[in-house]
Design a protein that fits this description.
- This protein is α/β, with parallel strands linked by helices.
- It has 2 domains: about 1-70, Signal recognition particle alu RNA binding heterodimer, srp9/1; about 70-155, Roll (2,3-Dihydroxybiphenyl 1,2-Dioxygenase, domain 1).
- The protein is about 30% helix and about 25% strand.
- The protein is elongated, with a radius of gyration of 18 Å.
Length: about 160
Amino acid sequence: MPRITPNLWFDTQAQDAAEFYVSVFPNSKINALTHYGEAGPREAGMVLTVEFELDGQHYTALNGGPEFTFDEAISLLVDCADQSEVDYYWSKLSEGGEEGPCGWLKDRFGLSWQVCPVGMVEMLNDPDQARGQRAMKAMLGMKKIDLAALQAAADGK
C-alpha cells in the first residue's frame, strides 16, 4: 500500500509549525525544505514545503497562503499511555493556542488535536451501559482529560 502523508496548509508558518511539532514529539525530525522560486506565486526564497516526521509518521507543511485555514473538521489524535503523557502533550500543544472540550485543543497555529489516554474509548463504550454513560458525562465536563476522574465517574464514585 502506498504511504499516506497528511499535508498541512499554512499561510507563512509551515517551518515554525514543523519545528514546534518536532520539538514536542520524541523521535521526530525535519527531513527537507523546499522554497518558492522566481516562478512564484509567492516571494522567491520563501519556504514552500517542510517535510517532517513525528515519531515515524510523515507530514508535509505547505506555505500556501491565507486562503485556507484549519478547523475542527480535521484533527490529529495523540494516544497517550497515561496521565503524565496527557498532561505533557496537553501543556505543550495548547501553549499559545486554546483549550477545547473533551480532550480537544487548538495549537498556536490553529491545528486541532485530541489528547486522549489509551483505554478511554473502551471506558466510554463499556458493555455496562450505565458505567459508560457515567464516564461519558464526566468526559463532557472536562477540557483536558483527567483519567482518574473519568475512572472514578465510570465506577460511580
